Amino acid sequence: MRITKGNGFVQLTYLPNLFPVNCYLVEEDDGFTLVDAALPNNAKAILHAADQLGKPIKRIVLTHAHDDHVGALDAIKASDGNIDVYISKRDSRLLAGDRSLAADEPQTPIRGGVPKAVKTRPDVLLQDGDKIGSLLAIAAGGHTPGSMAFLDERTGLLIAGDAFHTRGGVTVTSRMRWSFPFPALATWNAEASLASAKRLADCKPAILAAGHGNLIEQPVDAMLAAIADAEQAWIRKGKGA
Predict the structure, then answer these.
(1) 90: DSSP letter
(2) What is the DSSP letter of 149?
(3) pLDDT at 236 over 80
(4) 49 CA to centre of own chain
(5) What average pLDDT score do residues 71-93 get?
(6) Is residue 198 very low, low, confident or very high in pLDDT (cuts 50, 70, 90)?
(7) Are strands 157-161 and 207-210 parallel, antiparallel or unpaired?
């Protein structure tokens, strides 16, 4: 995995030049918070990176429950039974393989790879505004109903999960880019995705760290441009981007 070091965090990237899948180690006083768990075959590399950086993984925080964000969860949890796992209350159902929708949710089908065999169950169910160490949990539904982003209030790092991707430029996840179509193809609800993108831009992050693609410094203008582009696509299609 490619290792990119930042101020108080490390980005770990599998297949950076082909199909980049990111997870993040965020430094806390007691060790690392791992944000997302990539793919099943990434477990050893993630654990090795933490070991080489000299701190244990103390907790795992999941932006959402798609396969490419939870793949190594079971193996990393099994490496140390004291690691706590956090996910939104809503996406805990997806983590358990439940694709059903609540009556008050848009009845568009949940897309993307939803786990079928993950054994780990979360220790903490997150709500908007919860704190996990230095990270503020921000509800960012759209890609999945219970997607969350996490803002490091010390540094302005925004780990956005798949609310945005940065492969080939900053893009709202619902906006189809044929050069990298996978986030859009796996997005549940475009309207909710666009609303969440606006909310995250309002946080005015110093660094945008997405689930797919490179880190973007001073990203607000690029985020706003991506939102405007997604809005125009919404208008043109009349139903969504």
Answers:
(1) T
(2) E
(3) no
(4) 19
(5) 97
(6) very high
(7) parallel
Sheet holding 31-35, edge to edge: 2-5, 9-14, 21-28, 31-35, 57-61, 84-88, 124-126
166 secondary structure, DSSP code: B
Question: What length is written for the chain?
Answer: 241
**pLDDT confidence of residue 189:** 95
Strands 216-217 and 84-88: unpaired
Q: Which residues of 106-135 are buried (b: 16+ CB within 10 A; e: fewer)?
A: eeeebbbebbeebebebeeebeeebebbbb
10 Å CB burial of residue 175 (0-12, 13-18, 19+) is buried
Tens of pLDDT, residues 109-136: 999 999 988 999 999 999 999 999 999 9
Amino acid residing at 101:
L
On the CB side of 166, CA atoms within 13 Å amount to: 22
Residues 73/120, Cβ–Cβ less than 8 Å: yes
